[in-house]
Amino acid sequence: MRTIISRMPSGQIRSFGPSIVAIAILIAYFSIVNPLFLSYENAGNIGRQSSVLLMVSLAETVIILIGSIDLSIGALVTLTGILSALTVDALGIVGSMAVAVVTGAVVGLINGVIVTQLRVPSFLVTLGMLSILSGIANQISQGQSIIFENQILPNMMNGSLFLHVPNVIWFAVLTTVIFTLIAFRTRLGRYLYALGGGEIVASNAGVPVTFYKIVAFVISGGVCGLAGVMLTGQVGAGTPTAGSGLLLNAIAAVVMGGTALSGGVGGPHRTFLGVLVIAILTNGMDVTQVNSFTQDIVKGIVIILAVSLTIDRSKYLFIK
Amino acid sequence: MVVSATPSSAVRATSMPASTAPSSLALELRGVSKSYPGTKALTSVSFTLKRFGMLGLVGENGAGKSTLLSIVNGTVRPDEGTVAINGKPVRFGHPSEAARLGVATVFQEQGLIATIPVYENIFLGREKTFSLGGVLHQPRMIAEAKAVLDELEIDVSPRALTGNLSFGQRQLVEIAKAFAVARIYPVEPVILLDEPTSALSDSEAAKLFDGIRRWRKKGSFVLVSHRLRDVFAICEEVVALKDGCLVLQRGIDEVDEALLHQSIVGRERNAFFYHEGSQREPEAEIAVSAAGLSKSSQVQDVSFDLRAGEILGVAGVLGSGKSMLAKLVAGVEQQDKGMLTLYGTPLKPGARRQAIDLGIGYVPAERTIGGIIGTDTIENNLTLPNMSLIKHAIPWFLSPSLSRNLTKQWIGRLRVRPSNGKALCRTLSGGNQQKVVFGKWLARGVRILVLDDPARGLDVGAKEDLYALMREMAAAGAAILLVSDNLAELIGLSNRILVMRNGQCSALIDAPKDAKPREIDILPAML
């Protein structure tokens, strides 16, 4: 991680600043108000509460990096969570995970193909897909939580293999590392940045633009499937409302981290910080007993403030 | 040859009338200069436009026409000099002020909103005139718009949805808008037409010119155009810019097309600048063979052979199809008909990947759109088409050290500044960006380079580096197709020059190093 960071352009390191400052201020404030905030247990809570959000935010990062947007990720987590809850007893953990990941990837494939072949803006395609997926999820579950017998899945997600850190956190952190490696050390990663930064330049340089766009959507969908399984395991059931809050938080985390909505700038490592800001803020307000309606208001204000500090305006001609 | 600037107004305009009586000059510029970092866009430009006059403003890309227009319409503040519109000096910094004095610009990219009716576009931003307590008097707006359109004999309904009009009609609406706005203040309109015919068919252009002739006594016009025949068709006077300097202002009867072209592009060609001494004889091997290439109406039945070690220049005015020819050869666009063969291998139409694999590098004309990713680093731009050169021993991975070394090597060879491969490309000067674009192909070891106006907008030093590089590549056996707007550059660098006119090849002119053609030998085939 260190060497990766040291090899990033200086401009990127500089724009880490605001999220790190935000994190420091939040930690200082909450630990003064409630000293328990700084405890080891609470750190574990923050991690547990934000692992799924981190996975989903990584999935969204890939899409935003290429200059598109995916509004269907939250609904996809819900659907794949329900599917894994339905199948885990019959197919076992590996089987249900496969169902969730393949479903996610197929949905991503459909999104990607419609965006690139029918040339419909990703905003609209995924908005439609959001509705379709939540419809399917509700239909399958009849609006009820899906309960399952299997105890290995919950244990796997909530248990801890190393250092008393819950496994969900390991999964999410591992995914962050893998995504960051992909972003900076593979052809795929460099192509994703190129697509977002200058699609015509990439195409002139012989990059199969359509293929890589679809790949981005497929990867993103697959990771959402994984996030669905994680969520189901954590909760111990598949619920039709599980993913509802994820979409807005994920986009906020990605943008706060410093990945520009116009594409080509930022990356998974930044999203990690963005998620941390949201997670600390949410948890901090919980432990300092801010009521949940006020929490929404504060979160909204912090998001607008953070984005107005971090956003790279040089690529925008107009702000719409 | 250089025609010296002798603006006839220099003596006359010492005292400007401050009254509201119409001035005899619609537009008067005195000593206008403007610099941008690295370039001097305009150097002490002075000229006048008579009331109800029709002035042509000509010059090649980068001559300063756009800057001049922006200064007159108030969007750019000059470093020095004064501008007076209808006898009133312009205080700069308020684009709306120039409009209040009567100036309106009709841009190439049109400034109308497609989703609202014509009359709303005509009065966009002036709704106040028609509003009472915030409520618009629509019937009066429509009637007023109709009156203007009728007076100008423009056959467009004020209620028509703007997006449903043809390009030519929209242009007429923009001119009507200028008249309508001038009526409100009231002033006599001074209308700046920026390349008005570039997107029009011949009949639409003729219609536009008919209109302008009819409107002679209602307003003053400045026509900016690449097409000299447009200028000859309707202008009374012509002003030519070259490299930011005014090189000619004369009555249209006192110039002909060749003289005008000379004063626009004519340069003392410096044989050293283009390294003409090191121009080599092409090898026997044919690198690119084009047979009957056609693409809609833009390129029609063009054939040529380009040999290894040769620089083949492509000349032509804007819209002659020379850029499209470059795109076809590079495999970026797909031809309708015809065949391309690269070193004996037929290229599938529009197969960019295959073209790259066969060794074609392409430097597009729009550097920031097609050549360089501004948000990315020099390293990532340089390595974009070169992933196979920086593979890591671990499958799927790229080697950071190979990537870094490749970048360092080409930054060094091309003397890119800054030399830090992690610098973001948008912070680089145009010349250094262009070096990076070249570098990404050179790093691949390309055998064919397709260059579309590679030196456009670069300063002299950067050009010199670029020309030296092209000679070096040709010496190493690369075949170069050089499309350019700059005739001196084409003559200086090319072994042969293919001239295009209206999509067709109108001439193929030899340019051996000891018997270079003159510009005047090439011009007739272009015009």
Characterization of this structure:
Chain B: This is Sugar ABC transporter ATP-binding protein. Chain B: It comes from Acidisoma cellulosilyticum. Chain B: Pfam families: ABC_tran. Chain B: Keywords: ATP-binding, Nucleotide-binding, Repeat, Sugar transport, Transport. Chain B: GO terms for molecular function: ATP binding; ATP hydrolysis activity. The complex is a heterodimer of chains A (320) and B (527). Chain A has 320 residues and is an all-alpha fold. Chain A has a domain of 194 residues. Helices cover 75% and strands 1% of the residues of chain A. Chain A has 14 helices and 2 strands, in the order H-H-H-H-H-H-E-H-H-H-H-H-E-H-H-H. Chain A has a two-stranded antiparallel ribbon with strand order 1-2. Chain A is globular and about 55 Å long. The two termini of chain A are 36 Å apart. The N terminus of chain A is likely disordered. Chain B is of the alpha/beta class and 527 residues long. In chain B, a hairpin with a 2-residue loop joins strand 11 and strand 12. The N terminus of chain B is likely disordered. Chain B is built from 18 helices and 22 strands. In chain B, helix 5 packs across helix 6. In chain B, the strands form 5 sheets. In chain B, strands 6-9-10-3-11-12 form a 6-stranded mixed sheet, with helices on both faces. Chain B has 2 domains: 257 residues, Rossmann fold; 251 residues, Rossmann fold (3-Layer(aba) Sandwich). The two termini of chain B are 20 Å apart. The chains are: A mainly alpha (320), B alpha/beta (527). Chains A and B meet through helix 9 and helix 10 of A and helix 11, helix 12 and helix 13 of B.
